[in-house]
């Protein structure tokens, strides 16, 4: 009986393949219509490293009038030049907003209703506690956008979306702090909300809480690792050092007086920073930004 069924399957398959070759039936012709999205990281990004690449993305699809159509998520993948996302559309005009690395544990988006929500009302925001403290550090996040494309029902379109990194890593190393006093290091900014084009949207100030590392219990050096959202030279985030009573001992403009003092730093392309400050009391006597001296003790 099994042998008989095997012959039936083989005969049916052979007939189908012969029909495809001779008759050129529609079901035998590869579908070369629709649209495929491909993605590019910024030049120089090492996507082979878990530090720079992401393994999930969300694409938000709007029509040519800016009305929300649908959201497509993909995860457990690796986004590089070989990755393709085929969309289930054969005709029409669409524009695309991509958040690569989007993770609901740390980010939220506007509730989008198909046929109703307009792209101008679409926002991504960083989740925070009720007191606006960010205790769950933001995950690596990229943004991409593609202008409206009109699909051709006779051919498949490939749309390349350039990804731009939104998140930054900042390591703050504070030397010569009083080891008998408990200190905290914070970064305050209002960069937790973005429109569809990744421009800043109005938001309340948020306080980033780092992960701390002290070399030894008796050490007078405190290291704080931050993941923060987009930095911009025209904004004024603050770097603060406070004691256990929340008394502020150091409060400085993170960009204007620190990161921006290193002439080699371009906030558009660089996203990994080390700020090293040596104190005398609570007065900074030496400051290095990514190894570049911006304040030396002999200047004091």
UniProtKB/TrEMBL annotation:
It is found in: Cell outer membrane. It comes from the Bacteria. GO terms for cellular component: cell outer membrane. Keywords: Cell outer membrane, Lipoprotein, Membrane, Palmitate, Signal. Signal peptide: none annotated. Belongs to the bacteroidetes fimbrillin superfamily. FimB/Mfa2 family. This is FimB/Mfa2 family fimbrial subunit. It comes from Parabacteroides distasonis.
């Amino acid at each position: 009986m099994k042998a008989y069924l095997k012959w039936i399957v083989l005969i049916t398959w052979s007939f189908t393949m012969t029909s495809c070759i001779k008759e050129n039936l529609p079901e035998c012709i590869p579908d070369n219509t629709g649209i495929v999205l491909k993605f590019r990281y910024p030049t120089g990004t090492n996507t082979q490293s878990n530090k720079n690449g992401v393994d999930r993305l969300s694409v938000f699809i709007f029509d040519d009038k800016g009305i929300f159509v649908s959201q497509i998520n993909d995860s457990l993948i690796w986004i590089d030049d070989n990755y393709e996302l085929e969309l289930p559309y054969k005709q029409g005009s669409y524009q695309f907003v991509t958040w690569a690395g989007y993770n609901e544990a740390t980010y939220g988006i506007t509730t989008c209703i198909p046929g109703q929500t307009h792209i101008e009302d679409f926002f991504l925001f960083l989740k925070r506690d009720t007191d606006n403290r960010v205790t769950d550090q933001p995950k690596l996040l990229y943004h991409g956008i593609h202008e409206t494309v009109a699909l051709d029902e006779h051919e498949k379109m490939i749309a390349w979306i350039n990804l731009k990194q939104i998140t930054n890593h900042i390591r703050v190393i504070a030397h010569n702090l009083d080891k008998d006093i408990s200190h905290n290091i914070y970064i305050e900014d209002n960069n937790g909300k973005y429109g569809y084009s990744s421009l800043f949207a109005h938001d309340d100030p948020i306080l980033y809480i780092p992960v701390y590392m002290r070399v030894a219990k008796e050490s007078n050096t405190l290291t704080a690792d931050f993941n923060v959202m987009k930095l911009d030279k025209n904004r004024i985030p603050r770097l603060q050092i406070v004691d256990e009573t929340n008394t502020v001992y150091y409060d400085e403009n993170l960009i204007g007086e620190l990161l921006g003092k290193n002439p080699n730093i371009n906030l558009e392309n660089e996203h990994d920073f080390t700020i090293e400050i040596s104190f005398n009391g609570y007065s900074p006597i030496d400051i290095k930004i990514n190894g570049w001296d911006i304040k030396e003790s002999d200047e004091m």
